[in-house]
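Morning!

This is the sequence you dropped in the shared folder:
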Amino acid sequence: MGFVNEYAISIIVVSLLAILLENLLPEGSNKKYVNVLIGLLVMLVILHPLTKLPHYNNTFQIPELRIDDSDLSAPTEPYVAESFEKRLALAISDDIYKTFRKTVEIRVACTVNDAGQITGIQKIQLTPHIAEISTYIAETYGFEEAVITP
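The structure's back. Tokens below.
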């Protein structure tokens, strides 16, 4: 019986506060919006006991945020190496274009250790292979000329 009393008292209190607020507001264009909000508030108070019913418990609960972290343990080292290879190839091709005014395609392959660290450059593929550009890359970037292949 206490539940019904609390329910009735909450409806009466909210209704009285709504009437008081409605009478205190001056006439104007905003009053209709305030009346809508007051009506929604009264409706929420009236419908609140429905959330206490057993079969509605799960319906009105806020869902839990679940983060699937199973993919977070995947190694990121290959992505770092790929990114480094692409950035180095782009930097070298930009430098060659600025120096020789020739467009060449460059692919870089890195060596990666078990810890995922880049340990060196395995090869640099230069297409078309021009000896002058190959020598320039080796001298400018400090690579051995044997690493630069056609």
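Headline: The longest strand covers residues 118-127.

More detail when I'm at my desk.
O.
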